[in-house]
Amino acid sequence: MIKSDAIDFMIIGGQKCGSTFLHHVLDEHPQIGIIKGESPQFESPDYENGDWIKLIDDCKKMKVNYQSVIGIKRPNYLCNCDIPSRVNKHVSRPKFIIILRDRVERLVSAYYHYMGQGFLPHRNINKGIECLLNGNYAQRYLRSPELLNFGLYGKYMEHWLNYFDRRQFLILRYDELTTDKIGLIRKCYEFLEVDTDFIPKKSLQKRPQKVEYDPTRLRIKALKNSLQYEYNSDKTRLFVKEQNTIDKIACKAIDLLLTFYDKLGVYEKDDLTQRSINLINEYYQHDVTLFNNVIGNNFD
Fold first, then answer.
1. Which of 159, 166, 174 is nearest to 191 (CA)?
2. pTM for the whole structure
3. Which end of the chain is less crowded, N or C, counting CB atoms within 10 A of the terminal residue's CB?
4. Which residues are bridge partners to 239 per DSSP?
């Protein structure tokens, strides 16, 4: 099978590490084009359905129309063992951009994100983390195991390097979004071999996607999400719902409720205990060592 050169690069991870911000700033560059939204076409069942063919065709059309460096974004790809072989089979010499975050911070952010989307129950973060680590959610909430897997950077990078050369990867730190945002963006430009002097003024002020931590706001937003989205049969995927009039009216009412709640000036957040932090760090201890052995203490 002939490999396609339509996809020049992929933003493949990590989850809840700032990949959406990278998507925005790179897409603003006149020499770069990125397929809108996320591109799960190399995942199952999309891959088996042949959706990757249309994705490559769309990238080809974009490249012809804009003569750009073309990319896609899917942060779940990094920690999915099926993806490297599939990409290697169909895409010719792609580059990969990865941004990684402290494992504890990433897990907490992802946990709240999943609660908001209905993939996990609403409960105190410390109780939730304990249930997650003990595997108590695995049977009822089928996506819960991936929350921990998405922090196994060393394990999955080792797997990716079985298929691709280390020079095809740019690995960034989430901390750079606050300490040296311009420097981080220019690293991406240099890696993609485009004009490094361009400043993405429109997207530069954007922040990484905000996660809702306030328990009350989280429950209100989850109610709104239930009116905007629907799930597949095993509740592992979310799809935009075709809303009826009642759904739309209810969503507007919820927006008013959120506005009222914000005006009250009340903000709550369950603090992570030191015990929970220790449990998470203990879980990832081996992977930290593995990552340093595979990549090195310095990412460059």
1. 166
2. 0.89
3. N
4. 230
